[in-house]
Amino acid sequence: MNAPAPRDRTRPAELLIISGVLAIFVGLVVLMSTREIVLSLIFLVIAFIVALVVLAMLALAVQPDFAEKSDIDEQDREQGGRRGH
């Protein structure tokens, strides 16, 4: 069986990094405007969760291109025609 491509392995890390950067930005904006650390941390955590969910939903909404569809079909044939979806 083929190992996943490096791009496929780093995709979850990319979502976490982008969500983290957005959360840190929101946390810093709240901290600089209110000077309350607890409120800043609350907004940071909420922004991280919201950004992660939104980015994950957007990633799920992307339609696979021809190369991905052919790869999925090839993997299905290797498994003996069983489809998990």
Summarize the structure.
The chain is an all-alpha fold.
- In total, the number of strands is 0
Instruction: Tell me the span between the first and last alpha carbons.
Output: 19 Å
> Can you count the helices?
3
**Unreliable residue stretches:** none
Fraction of residues in H or I helices: over 70%
Q: What best-fitting shape do the alpha-carbon axes yield?
A: rod-shaped
Overall pLDDT = 86
Q: Helix/strand-derived class?
A: mainly alpha
Please trace the helix and strand order, writing H or E for each element.
HHH
Largest sheet: none
The whole-angstrom Rg is 19 Å
Strand content: under 5%
| Number of separate domains | 1
Protein name: ABC transporter ATP-binding protein
Transmembrane segments: 12-31, 37-62
Keywords: Membrane, Transmembrane, Transmembrane helix
Can you walk me through this structure?
It is a single chain. This protein has 85 residues and is mainly alpha-helical. The chain is 79% helix and 0% strand. The protein has one domain. The two termini are 19 Å apart. The relative contact order is 0.10. The mean pLDDT is 86. It comes from Antiquaquibacter soli.
Blueprint (SSEs and pairs):
Elements lengths: L5 H29 L2 H25 L4 H13 L7
Helix pairs in contact: 1-2
Question: Notable features of this structure?
Answer:
mainly alpha, 85 residues
